[in-house]
Amino acid sequence: MSTSNWTCPPTHPFIPATPGDRRSPCPALNVLANHGYLPRNGQNIGFWHLICAVQEVYNLSFILAVFLALAGVLLCGHAFRLDLDALAIHNKIEHDASLVHANASGQQRAPTEVDPELLKSFLSHADPRRGMSLYDLVQVRICREALLSHPLDSIHSQIGAGEAALCWLLLKQDGGRIPSSTLLQWFGEERLPDNWVRPRHVIGLLNARTKAVEVANMMRLGIKENT
């Protein structure tokens, strides 16, 4: 990642969601809406608009951006448009054992608000000075999934690993750790962190897939060691 700090353009200030705005269980997309890279009301987001936003801010490759956007609009959208809260429909893309969002608990949609206790637990896995490593992030996933009465199915387990992998690729610094302040602002406040820098290199589909497989393997080894 670049050594220069991210400076959010004046045309994209952080404005928290207001009553009536739609938000999702995905912090990456909520951040984009809160900064105006996506419609601030979170509604009627066009397929190409979604692709351009994640490319501009997160430096995803065109193929990865299309893959993620296509999954969202096909599974949760309408006429190649998307309302952010539709991503909360349970067991489409959304799944239990989210890092900072509560489970659906029998409801058709999962909560889209950050759960303060889950956020606190999540941040506790990071070293206060050194931040969170990929290993630490994997431990959070293991702990969250261990609390489920029924394990995630294979597809949603892979989605969870992919989300953790992409989070790490987007937020890590050169030393391979994510500062606690970055985690708090991105996951907790759903804003672009003050000292965050956009990935220097484009994050491609193969990069994301390889890291997701690494996360999944680390989780399997971690679960075995704890049993």
Note down, in words, how this protein is organized.
By secondary structure, the chain is mainly alpha-helical. Helices cover 46% and strands 2% of the residues. It has a two-stranded antiparallel ribbon with strand order 1-2. Helix 5 crosses helix 8 and helix 6 (154-171) packs across helix 8 (205-225). The longest helix is centred in the C-terminal third of the chain and has 21 residues, at 205-225. It is globular and about 40 Å long. The N and C termini lie far apart (37 Å).
Offer a quick outline of the entry:
This protein has helices at 27-34, 47-58, 62-76, 116-124, 134-146, 154-171, 180-188, 205-225, and strands spanning 45-46, 81-82. It is mostly helical.
Helix residue percentage: 40-55%
Mean pLDDT: 94
Distance between the termini: 37 Å
User: Tell me about the biggest sheet?
Assistant: 2 strands, antiparallel
What is the H/E order? HEHHEHHHHH
Low-pLDDT residue spans = none
Q: Widest sheet: strand order?
A: 1-2
Number of helical runs? Answer: 8
- What percent strand? under 5%
Count all strands and give the number: 2
Name the features:
227 residues; mainly alpha; 46% helix; two-stranded antiparallel sheet
Task: Summarize the helices and strands and which ones pair or pack.
Blueprint: H1 27-34, E1 45-46, H2 47-58, H3 62-76, E2 81-82, H4 116-124, H5 134-146, H6 154-171, H7 180-188, H8 205-225
Antiparallel strand pairs: 1-2
Helix pairs in contact: 2-3, 5-6, 5-8, 6-8
